[in-house]
Amino acid sequence: MIFDPLYLILALPGLLLGLWAQARVKGTFNKYSKVGTSRSATGAEIARYLLDSQGLQDVRIEQTQGFLSDHYDPRTRVLRLSPDVYGQPSVAAAGVAAHEMGHAMQHSVGYGPLKIRSAIVPAVQFGSSLAPILFIVGFLLNFTSLAWLGVILFATAVVFSLITLPVEFDASKRAKVLLGNSGILSPQEVQGVDKVLDAAALTYVAAAVAAVGQLLYYVLLLTGGRRD
Fold it and tell me: For residue 109, is it within any domain?
């Protein structure tokens, strides 16, 4: 199965897109990390300002470890920013911080796709690691029911990837609007934020393409759609 040409055909687009997206994200982030904000506001300060402007004073901001490990935790209402974002007064930091603040806004208004994504997280965490094992064992042992169970579990990860797209796009859209209207960044700096967030969006598209390709491969194997 590892060297199956069909697998390469279905997996290669997502793999290549993912590599390109990661390179573009890293390059764009590094570029705009060197561009300071006119008011010397750090990512944490910008996130705090935007949160307060939207009445979200109860959302806390914490520093977390890792490169671009930034995220919003709806369970604890905490916005966690990586060191390169939390304390840096750069255009890149402003964009990432505002994007994560966009997730806090989604949570506060009950944004549908975010609620669905949060609800299926446990199933995705359980199924993503177990699904390939079940599929391979079931397929090799000709235990079709077990293989289909693996496919169903893996499908939850695919659904998660697809739902992630509108969630991330909407968070970036909210971030761009807020930064553009707040006056905390200049129009030129907002343009830099657009490039940072647009590059980041490609990683989610790549993940969805890769997940759909792998799911399609599993289904074709089980339904006899594969042609040698």
Answer: yes
Kind of pairing, strands 71-73 and 78-81?
antiparallel
- Which residue among the candidates 45, 100, 168, 189 is catalytic per the annotation? 100
DSSP 138: H
Q: Please determine, for residue 115, whether its predicted confidence score (pLDDT) is greater than 50.
A: yes
Burial letters 69-91, b for 16+ CB under 10 A, else e: ebebbbeeeebbbbebbbebbbb
- Residue 164's domain spans which residues? 5-223
228 in a structural domain: no
pLDDT higher for 128 or 61? Answer: 61
Number of structural domains found in the chain: 1
Percent of the residues in the chain that have a pLDDT greater than 70, as a whole number:
97
- 75 within a domain of the structure (yes/no): yes
**Residue-level pLDDT at 1:** 47
* Structure tokens belonging to residue 154: 């893996």
> Is 62 an annotated catalytic residue?
no
Secondary structure of 193-219 as H, E, C letters? HHHHHHHHHHHHHHHHHHHHHHHHHHH
pTM, two decimal places:
0.89
